[in-house]
């Protein structure tokens, strides 16, 4: 599956906010996008990240977030419930990272992310995409991958 990444719009944020994982995973934290839009007409995500949607056939098929700090790129991502468990996770992760590296045109040595310890399926996807576990704090695991 090939994804096209474009900047998140307020309508995309509203759609993503309604993704329901039937209690398997926490709902996505979209509040910062709505707050920043109400206050200044711009969309700024959690931790001041940049948000992008992944489109397939012009349909919102994923969320990808990027935060750059020196030579590290932190990512946040999600697939809609209809695509979870379909075997496309590692491709989605790799395509999103490639997009981010090309979009920002900055030197990045490390990609990092955090995942809940209970999200075993996501951890497997990240490991398949080349991430390794670095540390665990509470119910969060930090994972990293070199570029």
From TrEMBL:
Residues 3-147 form the N-acetyltransferase domain. PROSITE patterns: GNAT. Gene3D superfamilies: 3.40.630.30. Pfam families: Acetyltransf_1. It comes from the Bacteria. GO terms for molecular function: acyltransferase activity, transferring groups other than amino-acyl groups. This is N-acetyltransferase domain-containing protein. It comes from Guptibacillus hwajinpoensis. The lineage of its organism: Bacteria, Bacillati, Bacillota, Bacilli, Bacillales.
């Amino acid at each position: 599956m090939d994804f096209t990444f474009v900047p998140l719009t307020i309508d995309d944020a509203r759609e993503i906010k309604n993704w329901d994982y039937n209690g398997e995973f926490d709902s996505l934290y979209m509040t910062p996008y709505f707050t920043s839009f109400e206050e200044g007409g711009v969309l700024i995500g959690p931790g001041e990240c940049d948000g992008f949607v992944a489109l397939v056939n012009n349909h919102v098929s994923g969320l990808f977030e990027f935060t750059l700090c020196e030579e590290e790129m932190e990512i946040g991502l999600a697939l809609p419930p209809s695509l979870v468990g379909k075997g496309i996770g590692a491709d989605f992760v790799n395509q999103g990272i490639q997009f981010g590296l090309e979009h920002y045109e900055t030197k990045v040595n490390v990609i990092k992310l955090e995942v809940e310890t209970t999200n075993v399926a996501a951890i497997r996807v990240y490991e398949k995409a080349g991430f390794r576990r670095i540390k665990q704090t509470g119910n969060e695991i930090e994972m990293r991958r070199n570029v």
